[in-house]
Design brief:
Shape: globular
Helix content: 25-40%
Number of helices: 11
Largest sheet: 10 strands, mixed
Distance between the termini: 48 Å
Strand content: 15-25%
C-alpha cells in the first residue's frame, strides 16, 4: 500500500507540473502508447448530462518497481457509434497575417471553427467570412481578459456543436502539423472518454520554419467535453476546463506548430505590451519579476532543444496548396499602439522601470499619428539613460541570483544570453 501511495503521489506531482506549465519533463510510458493516459484518482465527478458517457471505466496499472501509476483505457465501444465532433475555438485580434493559413488547416480536421474577434481593425473578419466552417462571435470589450473570452468560446462551442465533442483551444498562430491527424495519438483522442484533458506537443518554429524548438512538457489545449464548468483566470489561464477528476491524455505524437518566434518584432512588441499591462493592473507588482518574465534579451532556447523541423509537419498541407512558410513581420503592431495609449492615460513615468525602452517610441507615436489613430499622446518622455542602464544592471544581478538559486536547488532555469 505504501508503494502504491508513493507512486500515486509521484504521478499527481507530474500532472500538477503539466497544469502549472513548469518545465519539468513529463515521462510518457511506452506501454500500448495508442491507449495511454496519466490518471488522477478521481473524486466523484459532478453530475452533468454527459456523466453516463464517462463510465467506460479505467483500469489502473502500477508500473513494476513502484513508478508512476498509469491508466490504460478500457473504453466501451457502445458510448457512440460515431467519432466525436472536433470544434476549434480561437480568440482573434488583428491576426490577418496568419488567419488564412490557420483556417485552411483547421477546416481540414474540424467540424466547426469558432472565432471570438476582439475588434480587429485588419482583414481578420473578411478572411473568416471565406470559410464556411468558421463562425465569428463578437468579443466587444476593449479590455484584455483571457478568462472572459475563454468562457465565451466554450459557451458558443457547446451551443453550436452537439455532443459528443472535443474542444481544441488553439491560438491563430498555432497550426496543427500535417501528420497529426494520422498519428496514433489522434485516434486515441477521438476514443477518449468525456472528462479527458488532451495534452499535445507545441513546437516553436524558431528563426525560420526549417528550425524548431522542442519541449519535454506537453501543453493542455483540448478537452473531451462533459459539460463541466470552466474556471479560468484573467491572464495566462489554461484554455480548457481542468476539473480535479479529469484524466490527462498525453499525446507526444500530435504536434502544433507555433509561429510566434518567426516574427521577432511582433514578439518583442507583445512582451512590451504584457509588461505594461501587468504594471497597470498590478498583477505582477515586483518590477524585477516583470522584467524577467517579459525580457527579450534572454536566450529562450534554454527552455527547449533546437532541431531541424520535420518535413512531414508541412508536407501534407503544402500538397493541398496551403502556404506554410510565408511570415510577415511589420515594423509596428497593435500592441505598440496600446502601450502608447497607456502612456497617455497614466503618463510615461509609471513605466520607466519596465524593460520596454530599447524601442523607438517616438517614431512609433509619429506613425500612429499619421494613421489618425485615437488615444495617442502628444509626446513620449522616456526615462534618463542612466536609469535604463542601472535597471539593466540590477536585472542582470537578479537573473544571476535566480540562476544560482536554481542550480543549488537542482531546479531547471532558462539560459541567459
Amino acid at each position: 500500500m505504501a508503494v502504491k501511495a508513493d507512486a500515486l503521489a509521484h504521478c499527481q506531482r507530474a500532472l500538477r507540473d503539466a497544469h502549472d506549465g513548469h518545465a519539468r519533463t513529463l515521462e510518457v510510458v511506452h506501454h500500448r502508447t495508442d491507449q495511454l493516459l496519466r490518471h488522477r484518482v478521481p473524486p466523484a465527478p459532478p453530475c452533468s448530462p454527459y456523466h453516463n458517457m464517462m463510465r467506460g471505466g479505467v483500469s489502473l496499472r502500477q508500473r513494476h518497481g513502484g513508478g508512476p501509476v498509469c491508466a490504460r483505457a478500457c473504453y466501451r465501444t457502445t458510448v457512440s457509434e460515431s467519432s466525436p465532433r472536433v470544434v476549434v475555438v480561437t480568440p482573434v485580434r488583428n491576426e490577418a497575417w496568419i488567419l488564412d493559413r490557420f483556417l485552411a488547416v483547421a477546416s481540414r480536421f474540424a467540424e466547426r471553427i469558432i472565432v471570438a474577434d476582439q475588434r480587429s481593425t485588419d482583414d481578420s473578419r473578411a478572411i473568416c467570412a471565406r470559410y464556411p466552417k468558421c463562425t465569428v462571435v463578437d468579443n466587444p470589450t476593449d479590455e484584455f481578459n483571457e478568462g472572459a473570452r475563454q468562457l465565451l468560446l466554450i459557451r458558443q462551442a457547446r451551443a453550436l456543436v452537439p455532443p459528443p465533442r472535443i474542444i481544441l483551444a488553439l491560438d491563430a498562430d498555432e497550426i496543427l502539423a500535417a501528420n497529426a491527424v494520422q498519428a496514433p495519438g489522434w485516434r486515441t483522442m477521438l476514443d477518449a472518454p468525456p472528462g479527458t484533458i488532451v495534452c499535445i506537443e507545441r513546437v516553436d518554429l524558431y528563426g525560420t520554419p526549417d528550425r524548431s524548438m522542442r519541449h519535454d512538457r506537453l501543453t493542455p489545449v483540448g478537452y473531451v467535453d462533459d459539460g463541466v464548468e470552466h474556471t479560468p483566470r484573467d491572464m495566462h489561464s489554461v484554455r480548457v476546463p481542468i476539473p480535479d477528476y479529469a484524466q490527462r491524455l498525453l499525446l507526444p505524437d500530435v504536434t502544433v506548430l507555433h509561429y510566434a518566434a518567426l516574427r521577432p518584432r511582433a514578439l518583442a512588441s507583445k512582451l512590451r505590451w504584457y509588461s505594461a499591462l501587468e504594471n497597470v493592473r498590478g498583477t505582477c507588482p515586483w518590477v524585477f519579476k516583470r522584467r524577467l518574465r517579459y525580457a527579450m534579451h534572454l536566450n529562450f532556447t534554454g527552455a527547449g532543444r533546437i532541431e531541424s523541423s520535420a518535413e512531414e509537419w508541412f508536407r501534407g498541407w503544402e500538397a493541398v496548396g496551403i502556404d506554410m512558410r510565408t511570415v510577415v513581420d511589420d515594423v509596428y503592431h497593435w500592441y505598440d499602439v496600446d502601450v502608447l495609449r497607456f502612456f497617455r492615460e497614466y503618463g510615461t513615468r509609471k513605466f520607466w522601470l519596465d524593460d520596454i525602452w530599447d524601442f523607438d517610441w517616438e517614431a512609433c507615436r509619429q506613425d500612429a499619428k499619421r494613421r489618425n489613430l485615437f488615444g495617442i499622446p502628444d509626446a513620449v518622455h522616456p526615462p534618463p539613460r542612466a536609469l535604463v542602464d542601472a535597471m539593466r544592471g540590477l536585472s542582470w544581478l537578479h537573473r544571476a541570483q535566480r540562476r544560482l538559486r536554481h542550480r543549488l536547488t537542482g531546479r531547471e532555469a532558462p539560459r541567459f544570453a
